[in-house]
Amino acid sequence: MSEDPFHDYRSRPHTEDGRFHPYEVGLANRNHGAMLELLAHDITPTGAHYLLTHFDVPVVDAGTHRITFDGAFERPFALDMDELRALPAVTMPVTMECAGNGRAGHAKRSFSMPWMYEAVGTSAWTGTPLAPLIARAVPKAEVVEIAFEGLDFGYDKGVGHAFGRSLTLDQIAELDVLVVWAMNGADLLPQHGAPVRLIVPGWYGMASVKWLARITALTEPYQGFQQVQTYRFRQDADDPGEPVQAIRVKSLMIPPGVPDWVSRMRYLDPGPVTVRGRAWSGLGVPVTRVELGVDGDWIEARLTGRAGDYAWTGWEADWQATPGRHELRCRATDAKGNTQPLEPPWDVAGFANNAAQRVTVIVGQP
Ligand SMILES: Nc1nc2c(c(=O)[nH]1)N[C@H]1C(S)=C(S)[C@@H](COP(=O)(O)O)O[C@H]1N2
Ligand SMILES: [Mo]
Description:
Blueprint: H1 22-30, E1 66-71, E2 77-80, H2 81-85, E3 90-97, E4 120-129, H3 130-137, E5 145-156, E6 159-168, H4 169-174, E7 178-183, E8 186-187, E9 197-199, E10 212-218, H5 225-228, E11 232-233, E12 242-243, E13 250-253, E14 258-259, E15 266-268, E16 271-280, E17 287-294, E18 297-300, E19 302-306, E20 313-321, E21 324-334, E22 357-363
Parallel strand pairs: 1-10, 15-22
Antiparallel strand pairs: 1-2, 3-4, 4-7, 5-6, 5-10, 7-8, 7-9, 11-12, 13-16, 14-15, 16-20, 17-18, 17-21, 19-20, 21-22
The chain binds ligand MTE and molybdenum atom.
């Protein structure tokens, strides 16, 4: 027995590119991704939306659940679910992507949830705007940030904490943050944060705190684990890093053809093929261009529109498939002129990898 029973859990296991630790397989089984073929839908079917839950899903009684507004507010208050649902409601289609999406495509990969491409989805979220609730609680003059904490508690690197994140008052004013109780017209499912969660449109998913229970006004920056110890772009372990926030421009295609069960290698017949997919960027910035790459040549795609300012855009591109093995890629450009890189941008934890997707297909029969 080691003297410190937590010793093994204070750091991350060793990782090797292309190989997965049993702990990662465990995480991958709990935190499933979307099926890329369902990118056909504007709104991701609820059961196919990706999941990322750090600890256990808390079992919450919606009948007694309350959100408390506490800390440095002049008028702290609490809201139960009936009071929340009676507030002015909006429904907003929002594309949410996990900051770790694409991590497994990095070399050298870091240990964590081994996403390839699939940690993204679009839902129509129903809730009430956050800003008026903060205004109603009246932050004291010295308030710098508002913290949002969920009911799920656990450990990471030996640090016990409830999952929590913060936003500055300026961010709350600029972003269209919602306090949400419904997803695609139905009550939130337990795994998506029932009975109530935050949705921060245009930011990576970690900001959208599930099982929201506590909204606290702070006079010093929030020091929660999920705010300061992780979700930072670090160049090395000692780098304090920059916070991960807005989603980077990205696109995905529905892999054309049909798959092999084990390898997922794709097969299709020669001839004309329309390749379809979705593209999105952060903060509501529209996508202006998508290109389909075929063995290094780029074909211009048509954009087919989006369901809302924070929702992904459909695209389609025509390709004449010729016999043989081909590498397909897709890359998007947004209205700010950002284009997806062909190789992953580097950081220690493999966050926000928006490198152009690669799909290998074989035109012809095996
Ligand atoms: N309370 C709580 N909120 C959370 C998380 C969590 O583990 N606990 N995971 C975050 C992360 S990293 C992501 S990507 C999104 C995923 O939301 P989903 O599981 O509904 O897709 O929730 C965020 N909110
Ligand atoms: Mo995430």
